[in-house]
């Protein structure tokens, strides 16, 4: 008779995903919290450990695969989306997680990220955004603010920054979310939702570089400011925020505005109601542009569209369809072709 | 003395060149002529030559497209140095090609195209057909193909402009008459291509081809007809094949023989695109193809697929190789199997995208940062691409390494007859993955091949990380100086020991040595072998050796080189193999370079060889 193990003994836990290597991020780096969140998430997904593959590019965040006791591939700068695509297409049964940063993903790798997202393979993209180049010791990044003074911009950056979520929406992403290294519970929830989504999931993670850009997100996610400057998105709920839960977001024409409930006759029914399923990207695009300090910064799932085929399935289906139409390929017949001749 | 009608002059071989506007269908008629010659039992070699622009302005020199074929009753190794007959469909085609036609050669022109505007567009001041010199020098055959085609198609329901387009097949029919070619293979082509979809077009082309053939029968000037006997070749089943086709089939065969799924990622680039297109049509073989967003992405996708245990392949040309360099380095340090095909063309940069060169050998050797040797093999002919694909797969899978397979535009587009192999005779390429029941050490090596074992995602208990940072044997990141040196040496040794698996080199000529060895690689095989064969017939002590393995070189190469007084290295580059030979074997290898976008002529090589030994 088959022995059924109690679930406890079968189940994976966080320890199973801790690699033997020493973690070598700077003390206090936001990456530690994200690593812990992933190591807490993976055992809860019901995926066998050997099916996980973590792929990364180059940068501080991209050391991630070395710290995960799964299959992993630390690739080259900006190109992780291509390797992740190859892995997923070649073996659709794998659970593929891609780790990148604002420089790796949006500067050198912007092109690949665009094409990964539009093809929509079921890859989960974690973009650690700390608005600085950390591994090269402190130059400005494509998400750094205008005027940012860094080693390479002593007079302040003159580049206008890219908005990661708007970029993903422009690439017709089917899953767009934002979370923060300061919020363990929210990270785990977001990662689980990304895993459940069939298609490319794009998650921007506000991450703190303690050495070169310390407290860059403090005005939004800090203990003091969080309740007034963060807006947590909940499906079907009005956009309400504030310590007193008395502020909200309303649209006036195409422009969003902050209103106070109970003032000037404003009630909850005047506010935008969160809906991740709208096929028109206007609403999530509007959300993606709610920025500090004029607006609270939204966290959570901005968009989740069902129904678009994943890339790996579309590719596999063409193989299956060709085989059922033409039969499995006969190599000798292929080599011989239709115009051969015989020499006696 | 005039010969009787329909009597044939027996010749050993002939070279025919078709030239016209790039929209005139010259590649199509050239290919049909080739098929018909192969069907007649001749050996063949072809040289398509077309401009980079899809449709350059009609009637201009920039828009001239040509196709040359040599066919014969003996072994044909090149498309021929110069044509015996030139078909020029317009003044520009005449201007671009007539200098290659030797005195006395047959010059067939479409007089309808020799109108004032076309004549001046081609840069002639007056009608070149009226020049006394031209008429004296060549055997000129003037035919109004355009009007005759329209006349022959008077009953056809096609529109007048479509009727005129059939003139290329009318001209082809005429040349079929001159060289006694069978018409049936071309009739079959019309039926296969248009029979169902455009039956009127199939019918019109059939009529045009026949009318052209019949014109020959009635025309005084075409009275000379030539006959070429069947070539003595091994018995078996043959087909005509181009290098890119052979490469596609070889890759599919390699996947079958290794029991691996084939994953191909590519980005469109001349002249490698037919490989992407060819494999995309073979999905019923379980082939997965991806058209990537760029050359870098194609390489990354292939490497990702390789990590999961597939047979992964990319094909590109020189500019694409530049972009792939960083990823090839990653494939080298992670020791993952991968085939990278480079269908070479003229460089540097965009260079001559539709012309031939073999100038990416040093790029293949050295274009990566760090010490990063990888195996390189080169195909020497169109059909050899099949064998090279299988050999590249063997090396990649056995030694867990990226392999560069060099082909070139001339091999890729040119065609030759191919003795179709029996699938049951193909080698077994299967290499097992790591055993799930044993402890997995990522960089533990097989003592003879020095290859590591590959474990693939999905195998329980073998989870591990690979990446671009240097690793120790256990697969951990290591900055230890001695470890780095050891791993660097191991990666180099692993490539070097591939030489132990190679068969002895096949020398053409004198095994004991002699005056001169002509050492070549890649697509120059036909020209070099023809030149050496001719000179040996004349009694000269000349031998040749053609290298398939360029890294590592075969173990017996040094010994062979030492047996000859002189070593001549002809290459369609500035002396890349000769540089490697000089540095490795410390011999005074003599470089013979040509970088004109065209293959070597047999006569050029013969002259150079003679000059070198005198």
Explain the overall architecture.
The complex is a heterodimer of chains A (344) and B (614). By secondary structure, chain A is of the alpha/beta class. In chain A, 29% of the residues lie in helices and 18% in strands. Chain A has twelve helices and twelve strands. In chain A, the strands form two sheets. Chain A has an eight-stranded mixed beta sheet, with helices on both faces. In chain A, helix 7 links the parallel strand 5 and strand 6. The termini of chain A are far apart. The model of chain A is unreliable at 1-6 (pLDDT under 50). Chain B folds into three domains: 8-228, Pyruvate-ferredoxin oxidoreductase, PFOR, domain III (Pyruvate-ferredoxin Oxidoreductase, domain 3, 3-Layer(aba) Sandwich), CATH 3.40.920.10; 240-425, 3-Layer(aba) Sandwich (Rossmann fold); 514-613, 3-Layer(aba) Sandwich (Rossmann fold). Chain B is built from 21 helices and 22 strands. In chain B, strands 11-10-12-13-15-14-20 form a seven-stranded mixed beta sheet, with helices on both faces. In chain B, strands 3-4-2-5-6-7 form a six-stranded mixed beta sheet, with helices on both faces. A four-stranded parallel beta sheet of chain B has the order 19-18-21-22, sandwiched between helices. In chain B, helix 8 (184-194) runs antiparallel to helix 9 (199-218) and helix 18 (525-537) crosses helix 21 (602-613). The longest helix of chain B is centred in the middle third of the chain and has 20 residues, at 199-218. Mean pLDDT of chain B is 95; it is low at 1-5. Chains A and B meet through strand 2, helix 3, helix 5, helix 11 and helix 12 of A and helix 1, helix 8, strand 9, helix 10 and helix 12 of B. Strand 12 (341-343) of chain A pairs antiparallel with strand 9 of chain B, so a sheet runs across the interface.
